[in-house]
Specification:
It contains 17 helices and four strands. With about 400 residues, the chain is mainly α.
């Protein structure tokens, strides 16, 4: 072996870190018959330097401590272990964001803990601000935030002179509401924050319950009027993201708002729809947004997708029940065209379906291979029904047709 080869071998052994004892065994073979056996290379043991606590195991922005804090306290110790109210509340809000299903099981303990901690006006103001910020800055937390606000408005015992939890919450919302026109005209970041506020206010309108002295439950009427003004601000500045926010708002609250306005004899929803139609005709919004607006108009024309209750008659018919055809099955012609009992030529198409012999498409036409030659019902060697099954099927079809005619 020349000097260069020896140097390369030495470097290889150093890199693989083969123990010296192993090198000796490899270089000095045993004597006798065993010497003829091939040598087996031993793979080097690689020691990983990775750690389960390494930062790369956590997504950016993820707080790996809040779950552990809750695991340690389990809400049983209340706010023990937390230095400030903000730490405790923010951890709970993050916890709900990650695991919204915990709301029902943990909200009661959370409210009890707050009742022992929130004892001043300043603490209550801080609590309102923390929840408001979470609901308007964290995607998809507006609904959970509204539910949380509703629960706390009925279960927090503190009632300072500055106002109850609900009153302070509505005051905080009013601050943002009063800047609606400037926000709708602002830059993209400003509008994004404004849209988050709009959708949170919509969720509050749907979830915040006002209990009267006689036990009746109503919605906050001030939010109803506020949503109307927010729609005006959005439509007055018809850029794409403002219009998309308006569509989301109406999809969420449209049916409830229209019912409330109709009870007061107001025609506000018709005015909103007219405003949308004007935007579609005049505004320089994108084609996709215009299509979205038209879909919303169509949704409203179908009573927001709501199905009225079925007829009180003992037997529903097309004449006395507008939903008679809603649950009817859909059939297909030989050309693949769908039809139901509501079609004028239903009888002719249905009779054609009954007379058709080939109920299943040919496997080769679809370009698919069904599993195995013995596949039940689709075996190429047996295209016909069993006579007994065929007779029962025809009887079933005739009885169904007879009942439908009645």
């Amino acid at each position: 072996m020349d000097l260069g080869s020896h140097s390369i071998l030495h470097q290889y052994l150093q890199q693989t870190r083969i123990p010296s004892g192993s090198q000796d065994k490899a270089s000095v073979p045993d004597s006798g018959p065993e010497m003829a056996k091939p040598q087996v290379a031993v793979a080097p043991v690689v020691v990983s330097k990775l750690s389960v606590k390494a930062p790369e195991f956590y997504p950016s922005g993820y707080n790996q401590n809040f779950s552990q804090n809750f695991a340690d306290s389990s809400y049983e110790d209340g706010y023990d272990g937390y230095l400030t109210l903000a730490d405790y509340v923010q951890d709970f809000l993050n916890h709900l964001t990650e695991q919204p299903g915990c709301f029902e099981t943990e909200i009661e303990q959370f409210a009890e803990t707050l009742n022992g901690w929130v004892t001043t006006d300043e603490a209550l103001q801080e609590l309102v601000e923390l929840i408001y910020q979470q609901a308007t800055s964290v995607p998809n937390f507006s609904y959970m935030g509204a539910r949380l606000c509703n629960y706390l408005s009925h279960h927090l015992t503190i009632s300072p002179q500055s106002g109850t939890f609900r009153q302070l919450l509505l005051q905080r919302c009013r601050t943002e509401f009063e800047n609606r026109d400037e926000a709708a005209k602002g830059d993209e970041a400003t509008r994004k924050q404004f849209h988050a506020f709009v959708l949170f206010l919509a969720e509050l309108y749907l979830n915040l319950e006002i209990k009267g002295t006689k036990g009746q439950v109503t919605r906050a009427e001030i939010l109803q009027e506020g949503l109307r003004e927010l729609l005006n601000a959005l439509f007055s500045n018809p850029v794409d993201n403002n219009l998309i926010c308006a569509v989301k708002l109406l999809k969420l609250t449209g049916s409830v708002l229209e019912d409330a306005w109709q009870e007061k004899g107001k025609d506000d929803m018709n005015e909103v729809i007219q405003r949308i139609e004007n935007v579609v005709l005049d505004a320089n919004c994108s084609r996709d947004v215009k299509r979205m607006l038209l879909k919303l108009v169509e949704l409203r024309s179908s009573n927001w997708g709501r199905v009225l209750g079925t007829s009180s008659h003992t037997e529903a018919t097309p004449e006395n029940d507008p939903n008679y055809f809603m649950n009817e099955p859909t059939f297909y012609t030989s050309d693949g065209i769908p039809f139901t009992a509501a079609d004028p030529d239903y009888q002719e198409k249905y009779q054609e379906l009954l007379e058709r012999e080939d109920f299943c498409p040919d496997n080769e036409e679809n370009g698919t291979d069904l599993p195995g030659a013995d596949y039940l019902y689709f075996d190429d060697t047996d295209d016909e029904m069993d006579p007994e099954i065929e007779e029962a099927y025809e009887k079933f079809c005739l009885e169904s047709e007879h009942e439908r005619k009645q």
